[in-house]
Design brief:
single chain, 297 residues
Length: 297
């Protein structure tokens, strides 16, 4: 429904297109499942909706159904736009949306699985100039957006982490816009569910000083997997930042602030040492210092 709203509210669409969509939506509304598009009536992303689609899937689950190989990628809609670029942009929007971690092992595993499957689909696409522009636009939007974005400045404590998605964005953007790539990845490093809860009540008044909500960790069954993905994101940034003192220091600060698992910090210390001494020439002194700092921590 949200996806269709975006399509229909597109200000560049002609009235006859909207009339055609309305007719088609009314037709589909009368059936229990979304039928396959016949290929002639509706020139948009409806190929992306499988027969088994249902309204109860998570945002990423809805977007996961985008089958890029079935989209007529060479048929252009407007200048620089194809079905492939539109599908990729919808996927980025879905992956970047802020969503609260659901209850239950199955639902939490499903979120991880859906996200990884969709990113795997995106990795099949070779990024051209048009797609790079879309990736940059969406990354900036997600960083500056409000509560709808999982990469926004303020998120809910139990918001699904963006580590896996940010790692993909980082590697995709790095050759084209390193500053934006690091900004995105560093923003995604947080794992608020492991942070202490803030005190409640009016703390400016002394008699409220004891009014503190005890720390409560929600039942995140996939937490170990999430922490591994956080560690992978950090390691990817350390590797890319080799030779850049400023970036290495920034990544180190982010690791020290956001990673709470001693085993993962130790792994990153090992990674930093390996990366620093990878070549036969002199080792990267800054990376060795990062390794030492993390090892001591």
């Amino acid at each position: 429904g949200a996806l269709w709203m975006c399509i229909v509210l597109n200000p560049h669409c002609k009235l006859e297109q909207k009339a055609s969509w309305l007719k088609q939506l009314k037709k589909w509304n009368s059936v229990d499942v979304c039928p396959w598009e016949d290929g002639n009536e509706l020139p948009n992303l409806t190929n992306a909706l499988p027969q088994s689609a249902n309204s109860n899937q998570e945002n990423v689950g809805q977007c996961k159904s985008l089958e890029y190989q079935h989209l007529p990628a060479h048929k252009f809609l407007e200048e620089g736009e194809s079905y492939l670029t539109l599908a990729a942009e919808v996927a980025l929007i879905g992956l970047g949306q802020q969503r609260i971690m659901p209850d239950g092992l199955y639902a939490q595993e499903k979120i991880c699985r859906n996200e990884e499957q969709l990113i795997s689909k995106l990795q099949e696409i070779e990024l051209d100039d048009t797609l790079v522009k879309i990736f940059r636009k969406q990354a900036v939007f997600l960083l500056e957006a409000g509560p709808y974005s999982g990469l926004g400045e303020v998120i809910h404590r139990e918001s699904v982490p963006m580590h896996t998605f940010a790692k993909y964005l980082f590697t995709s953007l790095l050759p084209h816009d390193a500053e934006l790539a690091y900004k995105t990845a560093l923003r995604a490093m947080r794992l608020l569910v492991l942070e202490s809860m803030a005190p409640s009540g009016d703390m400016s008044r002394p008699h409220h000083i004891a009014s503190v909500v005890p720390n409560r960790y929600p039942r995140w069954f996939t937490l170990s997997h999430i922490e591994s993905q956080q560690c992978e994101l950090a390691s990817t940034m350390l590797t890319a930042a080799k030779g850049d003192v400023r970036r290495l220091e920034t990544v180190l600060e982010s690791i020290q602030k956001n990673i709470h698992s001693s085993s993962h910090i130790f792994k990153l210390a090992q990674d930093a040492f390996k990366i620093a001494t990878l070549m036969d020439n002199l080792p990267d002194i800054t990376l060795l210092k990062v390794s030492l700092e993390l090892g001591l921590q």
